[in-house]
Amino acid sequence: MLTAILIFLPLLASVLVLALKPAQARVAALIIALAELAVSLVAFAQFNPADTSAFSIATPWIEQLGINFNIGLDGTGLVLVLLATILTPLIILSSYTGNIERPALFYFLILVMQASMIGVFVAEDGFLFYIFWEMALIPIYFICLLWGGAERVRVTLKFFIYTLAGSLFMLLGLIYLYLQTPGEHSFSMQALYEAGKNLDAVSQSWVFWALFVAFAIKMPVFPFHTWQPDTYFEAPAQGTMLLSGIMLKMGVFGVIRWLLPVVPQGVEQWSYVAVILSVIGVVYASFLAIIQKDIKRLVAYSSIAHVGLISAGIFTQNSAAVQGAVIQMFSHGIIVFGLFYIVEIIQTRTGTTKIDELGGIRSVAPKLATLFMVIMFGSVALPFTSGFVGEFLLLNGIFQYQPWASAVAGVSVILGAIYMLNAYRKSMSGEANTLTQSITDLTTVEKAVLIPLCLMVVVIGIYPAPLLDLSQTAAQNLLQIVELYK
Amino acid sequence: MNAIYILTGVGVLSLLSEILNFKKYIVWLAVLGLVATLVFTVADWGTSISYFNDMVRFDNYAIAFSALLASVGLLWLLLSKKFFDSNYHVTDYTALVIFALIGAVLMVSFSNMVVLFIGIEIISLSMYVMAGSRKNDLLSNEAALKYFLLGSFATGFLLFGVALVYGASGSFYLAKIAQYSATAQPPVFYYAGIVLIFIALAFKVSAVPFHFWAPDVYQGAPVSVTSYMATIVKTAAFAAFFRLFYTAFASNSDVWWLALSIITVLTLAVGNIIAVQQTNAKRLLAYSSLAHAGYLLMALLILNSYSAGAILYYAASYSLATLLSFFVLDKVSEYSGTNDIAGFKGLYKRSPLLAFVMVLSLLSLAGIPPMAGFFAKYYLFAAALKSGLLWLVITGVVASLISIIYYFKVVAAAFSQADENQASPISVPAFQKVVIVLMALGLIALGILPNLVFGLI
Questions:
Q1: Nearest CA to CA, how far is B450 from chain A (Å)?
Q2: Distances in Å between the alpha carbon of A387 and those of A18, A86, A374, B96, B229?
Q3: Residue B346 region, left (φ>0) first, then alpha (ψ -120 to 50), else beta?
């Protein structure tokens, strides 16, 4: 029941928001998002990894075609649902400072987006998964198109076509699997797992690529990442936060639930390639981040680097790495959101995101500089921050899989420290210049967004046990299923 | 069958209304007539009765398509109120539209090739006149002439083909032809007949390379007429195409299957690729309708038990979305004075409702879930994959990716800043607001509950 509420609460309430006046809309949106957070926390409290049947709902949807409305929550799904429900109210709150045009539509789209993404995380039917997967694309497209930067029309179209191309081939892969299910055909997750299991190795590798490309584009993994920096740059701040904070996890999640267990032999044949591509992406994006002159682009590339590491970890199918990936998905969501928000704060105050034009912000806005520092430490994976827990497990796991891959990916931690610290130093320390000397420090709303983020970064870093437990069962669960359907 | 009686009555009545002096009400009368048609058609559901010496048969296929045609006709009338208000000869045009609908109903219910021919002729002749209904507009005249000349050609092909098939099989009845082709060794001219009929029908559904008339005619005709041609005429033509080839010529599929597959790929490719370059929204929608003909042709190629339901569902979702998009185009061009995509600029500010409706219908045409257009395509792709036609599905997938480019061009325009001189708000009559909102919701509802339609036949 809770799972259905998680999907339908924001979906139905969003229509309500659409009908409200601007001032009411933003309050209503925040209340809805907080209610949704409460629901997900209840789910978290009730969650029992040994028996998740309480969260499952299975009803036929289009019976003749074997399409079901099957939803449920497992460890990974719960982590991501929590991430989505924690970030969404903060994203809504973060929009309070700016002057958003047509707010009712804006919050409507954010809530529809949230509902679709949660749908992706809980769907246990291939068709349903696909529907939510695509549905998430529409609101984010309009958020970028309507509130984006100057180049938005071209960039958003590229983004849309890119991701849709991937998804359509994923759809073909899913239909192919569906046609392999016995008898009346079914799209239910178990049926597709069974169907994948019975495929020969060659078919499995075809299906692997059909599905992998869709997920690789979403994450994005090198060389499917070219849509990402432009889109992050042109999207409005909240759009970037949704994209980087939550939406890209759809790709990782897709690999976990709809790739590894579906075609284990295909994965076995190609995981090496996937790991190599991911590691290349990590290093490549890190170097690109170093040479960026624009801090927003820098964060965009750093996101590619971090996600590359997550992706590499998952494809190793090592329990430590998978566990690290789950934790890192959560941690990366918080940190990248924080980074983009800080960039947004700097941009609205100074009108620029060029690193060289900034400087000395620390002297005029010490609170901003401090909170930025905490989040940046998380990003460079300093011990006692949330970034450290995930990245340590990931590198450890990848090392067990292939030492050199871990060594190369480990370089990215150093590179990450270089570009992050550099950006921080250039923008925050030194003498305030004409652009930065008159900026104000954080407002209450900004603090209300950033302080919870920083708290999460630190608390997870110091006391990661709950997340570790949850992700450990998730990882074991996944590897068991993969083993089962091999 | 009641559909034909009622429609004939309404058609004759509207011819008389000029004399009897109630032409003010004739559109509403036609609306009522269509509602009655719909009700009586649906009431026949499950029966399979033959009329006129078995020349027409109202089986579930015919009833489902008749009901679809009647509902689309109804919605079309409601959305085209302006077309009738602005035309002096309102009675002639209502009569033509209603008669064309009779032709369409015949085209989905025939079981004899003569009836097919009569149906096609009724619908075509009406459309020739309708395309030229703006007498003072050069483009409208050109459209009518072009349509008429090329259409007559196609009719000639059809008639010749029917004659050849009759010459070989000795019958106009589909069942007898099917029996004949399955058992006998037909002479070569029988196959020539099939090819000629095939070409004629490919012309009617505007499949590449017999499509050259379509963009010009669609662009030249008044928007309402274009929307009628793109929905009702197209639906009827596809239903007829499938009915004829599935019942009569299925065992000769080796003759036409390869040709049809080439035509399908060409239609998908040409329709979509040329649409990308259009700057005129009306022409863009014309090419988009061409592209959708490609998807419907896919259903013919699959030629199994899925096909009929696939065509019905596709035609329903496509017609709904096309009616809506043409309606919005009509409104926009009325206020912007242009059919260009640029005319859509700032639509969101000028009329949020129209922008919203336009976006939903374009998303549906592009095949994005949860809109009906997605499920229509999904159903086709799944059926084609089941038949092992992977190359066909990949063509379809690439084509729908290309279609995003031009549909989203319009979407992006609708949400961009308006030019100074084109910022006046667009007003829509209240009853039409209700109709378009219901239709837009229908597009979502059809997408979420597709089994309401495709499972019927």
A1: 8
A2: 37, 17, 11, 72, 61
A3: left
Packing angle, helices A248-258 and A103-122, rounded to 10: 20
Q: What is the pLDDT of residue A407?
A: 87
Average pLDDT of chain A, as a whole number = 88
| Complex ipTM | 0.90
Partner-chain residue, chosen from B370, B386, B408, that has the shortest CB–CB distance to A160: B408
Please state, in angstroms and rounded to a whole number, the distance separating the CA atoms of residues B381 and B313.
13
For an interface test with B, the pick among A127, A140, A153, A174 (most B C-beta atoms closer than 10 Å) comes out as A153
CA A70, A76, A79, A84 dihedral sign is negative
Does A172 sit within 8 Å of B397, measured CB to CB? yes
With an 8 Å Cβ cutoff, are B393 and A131 in contact? no
Q: Among all residues of chain B, which has the CA nearest to that of A178?
A: B382
**With bands split at pLDDT 50, 70 and 90, how would you rate the model's confidence at A430?**
confident
Residue that is written with structure tokens 């922008």 in the block: B355
* Closest chain A C-alpha to B369 CA, distance in angstroms: 6
A102 and B341 in contact (C-beta within 8 Å)?
A: no
- Band the pLDDT of A104: cuts 50, 70, 90: confident
Q: How far is B394 from chain A (nearest CA, A)?
A: 9
Instruction: State whether B401 and A131 contact (CB < 8 Å).
Output: no
Chain A residues interacting with chain B (CB cutoff of 8 angstroms): 62-65, 130-131, 134-135, 137-138, 142, 145-146, 153, 156-157, 160-161, 164-165, 168-169, 171-172, 175-176, 178-179
CA dihedral over A342, A343, A344, A348, signed as positive or negative:
positive
pLDDT under 50: residue ranges of chain B: none
Predicted local distance difference test score (pLDDT) of residue B388: 85
Question: B400 touching A, CB under 8 A?
Answer: yes
Instruction: Give the count of Cβ contacts less than 8 A between chain A and B.
Output: 61
